[in-house]
Design brief:
It contains eleven helices and 17 strands. It has about 350 residues and is α+β, with helices and mostly antiparallel strands. The protein folds into three domains: about 1-100, PH-domain like; about 105-175, Phosphorylase Kinase, domain 1; about 185-330, Orthogonal Bundle (Transferase(Phosphotransferase), domain 1). A hairpin with an 8-residue loop joins strand 15 and strand 16. Helix 6 (about 195-215) packs antiparallel against helix 8. The longest helix is centred in the middle third of the chain and has 20 residues, at about 195-215. It binds adenosine-5'-diphosphate and magnesium ion. InterPro entries: Prot_kinase_dom, Protein_kinase_ATP_BS, Ser/Thr_kinase_AS. Keywords: ATP-binding, Kinase, Nucleotide-binding, Serine/threonine-protein kinase, Transferase. Belongs to the protein kinase superfamily.
Length: about 350
């Protein structure tokens, strides 16, 4: 009855639906006959003689293999090879959304840029276009999917962009923007007595803007420390990036997967003292860590000084802070409140 009363409304609804479906198509691929493919946001659909044959979900840990013969000529899924002259376009649209194979076809390693607790970061040169990137090499583990998924949600100057993710035999490789400056740990190392007040203000303003944005997206980093804050350019303190989302989590979970984590010396006491692993905590833990970084920048000293993981962790748990290094430096209160001009 609705249809007979309102044929125009019905045709309008139908049109909208068709448009909606068309909008989902990111790329229609001409493959070698009898195959065709359609890339949508969540799936790559392969058709044989116009009949659906196979759908690849666009998510980790799925993998697409590229067929490379001097240039990119196709892709392989489930041992079936599909040749197409749109392979570069397809690769661009899939970048960072699932695994690619054969990093050696696309990048040449040049040198080690940094090493953390779980990964090595290498300087690599792209074989297509001669550009330089950083490649984080991580041993295979499940947490890595979350590291990428969370990083992919952050679109702000304080975070690097992930370009592609490769799967090797024993490792994953995250290709990301290259940061050519030092990390804050390296920057502070040779500056006895800390940085100047102006330098500290610039760094803290850039860091806190990134943290504010990240928290507004419902994400907690959980491992903010000088090694995880890297300058994009040497001597430019305002272009810093907060890296390493290996321990990051969504803040709205009822229970965290790895609740007790972080680094002694920087971890918030509510995490260091956690006994009931069902207890959740909030984004303020990142602010505590940022405060520990701030203290180190200002004074050149650790907030919880000492050597050895357990010794520092005990001090961190008690959280008795000696503020006298700040008074010795006669640091005025406007260091903390007067950073708007940056
Ligand atoms: N995009 C990048 N460009 C240059 N150096 C980087 C980049 N990302 C990380 N690094 C360096 O590599 C180190 C280790 O990287 P990180 O992601 O923190 O690994 P981990 O998870 O093992 O701690 C960092 O402390 C930093 O100095
Ligand atoms: Mg790190």
């Amino acid at each position: 009855m609705f249809l007979t009363c309102c044929p125009n409304v019905y045709s309008m609804v139908l049109k909208t639906q068709i448009n909606f479906i068309d909008n989902e198509i990111l790329l229609s691929l001409d493959l070698q006959a009898p195959f065709k493919a359609i890339l949508k946001k969540d799936f790559l659909h392969i058709y044989q003689d116009n009949e659906p044959k196979f759908s690849l979900p666009i998510s980790f840990p799925n993998i697409i293999h590229w067929v490379y013969n001097k240039s990119l000529i196709g892709f392989r899924i489930n041992n079936n090879t599909y040749l197409t002259d749109q392979a570069y376009k397809l690769k661009e649209l899939l970048s960072g959304k699932l695994f690619f194979s054969k990093i050696q076809d696309f990048y040449a390693p040049l040198q080690i840029l940094g090493q953390g607790s779980s990964a090595k970061v290498l300087l690599v040169k792209s074989k297509i276009g001669d550009q330089y990137f950083a490649a984080k090499c991580v041993e295979k583990n499940e947490l890595m999917y979350q590291e990428i998924e969370i990083n992919n949600q952050l679109d702000h100057p304080a975070f690097v962009k992930i370009k592609e993710v490769f799967q090797g035999e024993t490792s994953y490789y995250i290709i990301m923007d290259l940061l050519s400056g030092k990390n804050l740990q390296q920057l502070i190392k040779n500056q006895h007595g800390g940085l100047t007040l102006e330098q500290c203000q610039k760094i803290m303003h850039a860091l806190l803007s990134g943290i504010e944005y990240m928290h507004s997206k419902g994400i907690i980093h959980r491992d903010i420390k000088p090694e995880n804050i890297v300058l994009q350019k040497t001597n430019n303190l305002t272009t810093l990036k907060l890296v390493d989302f290996g321990l990051a989590t969504y803040s709205n979970l009822k229970k965290f997967k790895y609740p007790k984590c972080g680094t002694p010396g920087y971890v918030a006491p509510e995490i260091a003292n956690l006994t009931d692993k069902d207890t959740v905590y909030g984004p303020a833990c990142d602010i505590f860590s940022a405060g520990s970084v701030f203290f180190k920048l200002l004074t050149g000293r650790d907030l919880f000084p000492g050597t050895g993981f357990n010794f520092v962790l005990q001090l961190n748990k008690k959280c008795h802070i000696d503020f006298s290094p700040l008074t010795l430096k006669k640091i005025p209160i406007n260091v903390i409140v007067n950073y708007n001009k940056y």
